[in-house]
Structures are given as C-alpha cells and as structure tokens.
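Hi both,

Apologies for the delay on this - the queue was longer than expected. I finally got the coenzyme A-bound model through. Below you'll find the protein sequence and the ligand SMILES exactly as submitted, and right after that the structure tokens for the full complex including the ligand.
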Amino acid sequence: MYPRLSLLHLDELGEKRLARLRDLLDPAEREQAARFVFEANRLEYIAAHGLLRSLLAEETRRDGARLRFIRAGQGAKPRLDGAEGQGLDFNISHTSGLVVCALLRDGQLGVDAEYLGRNLDLSLARRFFAADEADWLEEQAEPAQAFVQLWTLKEALVKAVGQGIAMGLGSFSVRPDPPRLLRVDTPLLGKPERWRLWQTRPGDSYSLALAWCGADATTEPQIISPWALLP
Ligand SMILES: CC(C)(COP(=O)(O)OP(=O)(O)OC[C@H]1O[C@@H](n2cnc3c(N)ncnc32)[C@H](O)[C@@H]1OP(=O)(O)O)[C@@H](O)C(=O)NCCC(=O)NCCS
C-alpha cells in the first residue's frame, strides 16, 4: 500500500493557483485563514488546506470543496467525515514556504516538514529527546541539521498516532540516513517493525519526514505533483 504525498513550495504557487486553492476552503477554514497576523502564515494555511482537499478529492472522487472534517476533541487528529473517510488516514504539515499533504488507506500516517535554517536551541534535545538521540546528536558534524532530521522523524511518528508531542518524545528513538525507528517504549507505537520511515530534503532547505504503518506497507511513498491535482 503506497502512501501518497504531495508538496508545494509557496514561491511557485502564483495568484491564480492560490485563488483556486482558496475556493476549496469551507467557511470555518476561511475564517481561520483571515485570523493570521502575518500574510506568510495565511498563505501557508490556505495552500496546505486547499492542497489537502485536492488530494482527498482525487482519492475519494468527491468534490474537494464539500468534504467535511471532524475531530474527536481539541488537539485530536483531524478525520474525514462520512463514508468517504472510512479507512483513510491523512496528515498535513506547513512550515516557512513549504506545505505537505499525505494520505494512506488502511493504515496510520503522519508527516512533518521543518525549515533547516531555523534558529534552534539544541539543548532541547537533552530535555525532550531520548538520551541515546541526544548523545548521537553531540557526535554530529552538523548538529543543527541533524536535530531537524530527528525532530521531523519524531513529529511524523507522533502525528501518525494522533497524539501530538504530549505522548512524550523520549518514549522512542529514531535515526536518519537511512531513517529508522530503533526503539519503542510506548504501547502507542507498538513494535518498531510495524513502521516505515521516509525522509527527504525538498529544495535542500527543508527536512521532510513521513511515517506510516499498515498491511503491505511499501517502503516509498508515491509523489503526486500538486499541479496535477489542482482543478
Ligand atoms: C499537532 C502538532 C503535532 C502539530 O505540529 P507542528 O509541527 O506545530 O505543525 P504542522 O504544520 O507540522 O502540523 C499541523 C497540522 O497537523 C494536524 N494535526 C493537528 N492535530 C494533530 C494531531 N493530534 N495529530 C496529528 N496531526 C494533527 C492539523 O492538520 C494541523 O494543521 P492545521 O493546524 O493547519 O489544522 C503539534 O503542534 C502538537 O503536538 N500539538 C499538541 C497536540 C495535543 O496537545 N494533542 C493532545 C491530544 S489529546
């Protein structure tokens, strides 16, 4: 089973395509978009949610503008309402100039993207990551980039299970190059072998990680061009 993934650099979007993505949003999403103080955040939000609707529309053969989302509670992972949402998991991530959407049938999936040029406090690793990850980071020639690689892998996993970082980032250990899950100490993830991890560096400026599990899970996602999705 392939996860399907689409990513979009905001500087490639243009006014016409942005307008088409905005047209897909529902009233609540438009209100949310209008609330952002910074224009860049507004554009990211519109692009991420418009692209998600386009990807889900293609998958479910429904009108993307009519899809409805539900959440089990505040902070819970969004789901698709109705029969079209059955057995379908999806996730989005947006960060300085890049948006990513991914979906998977009959499994769990999470995605995370971060800008590699962020100012980071690397001591966060010692406080929040597993001890072996913090040790590994200290040995790296480029610890800031290695930190973001670990961070995106870990976020993709916690987003796959839908818990958010509240589940404890120290309860499992990952490594990049190649991306792998070494140790799990939480029933939320189950056995490490259940999980597939995939990581890339879009435009050399971002780290993007995808985590998924499911029957017959493949080792690579299928990448869908956003321009093939936009109506
Ligand atoms: C949700 C969270 C993982 C987002 O990570 P982030 O790096 O800040 O942001 P990203 O752009 O990568 O992802 C945001 C998207 O993840 C999705 N998302 C929200 N909650 C989620 C969850 N619990 N699990 C998976 N995905 C979630 C949403 O689609 C969100 O997009 P939106 O805010 O535009 O609607 C992180 O902020 C977090 O852990 N928050 C705490 C959640 C929490 O407390 N949950 C408690 C559950 S009881």
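Main takeaway for now: The chain has a mean pLDDT of 94.

I'll put the files on the shared drive as well.

H.
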